[in-house]
Specification:
This protein is of the alpha+beta class. It has a domain at 5-26 and 61-123: Alpha-D-Glucose-1,6-Bisphosphate, Chain A, domain 4, CATH 3.30.530.20. 27% of the residues lie in helices and 42% in strands. It has helices spanning 17-25, 27-33, 106-123; strands at 5-13, 37-41, 44-49, 52-62, 66-71, 80-86, 93-101. A seven-stranded antiparallel beta sheet has the order 1-7-6-5-4-3-2. Strand 6 (80-86) and strand 7 form a beta hairpin. Helix 1 (17-25) packs across helix 2 (27-33). The protein is globular and about 40 Å long.
């Protein structure tokens, strides 16, 4: 089995960090763009897609800055993260997605994130 590597994607967003964070860290916000149904209990999100359920535990978070999650079936060192940065130069809000994939799958996984984030932008009116 190939070892997964971390990769990072950046998306400029026309939205305040506080509003964006709500879409990244709450069941209602995540259900708008990330999964068909989202529940949260005991620091674990349950994401449902077409009846399939995957769980991710919250590893760390700072309001309006980032949330880091790990699929409960993933190795301890792997996670996915939504980070919000505001450019010092342009004051533009930037969403940074960090995830892990095998090298040969990074392009496909990036495309999947592009699709998901496009849906997020549609929901926030971007």
């Amino acid at each position: 089995m190939s070892k997964k590597v971390q990769y990072e994607l950046e998306y400029p967003v026309r939205c305040s960090p506080g509003i964006l964070y709500e879409f990244l860290s709450t069941p209602a916000g995540l259900q708008e763009w990330f999964a068909d149904k989202v529940d949260f209990r005991d620091n674990v999100f349950s994401f449902s897609w077409s009846g399939n359920v995957e769980e991710a535990e919250v590893l760390d978070q700072v309001a309006a800055e980032y949330i880091r999650l790990r699929w409960v079936t993933a190795p301890k060192e792997e996670f996915f993260e939504f980070r919000i940065r505001v450019s010092d130069v342009t004051t533009e809000t930037i969403l940074i997605v960090k995830d892990f994939a095998e090298k040969k799958e990074i392009a496909d996984q990036s495309q999947l994130w592009d699709y998901q984030v496009k849906d997020l932008f549609h929901r926030i009116g971007n």
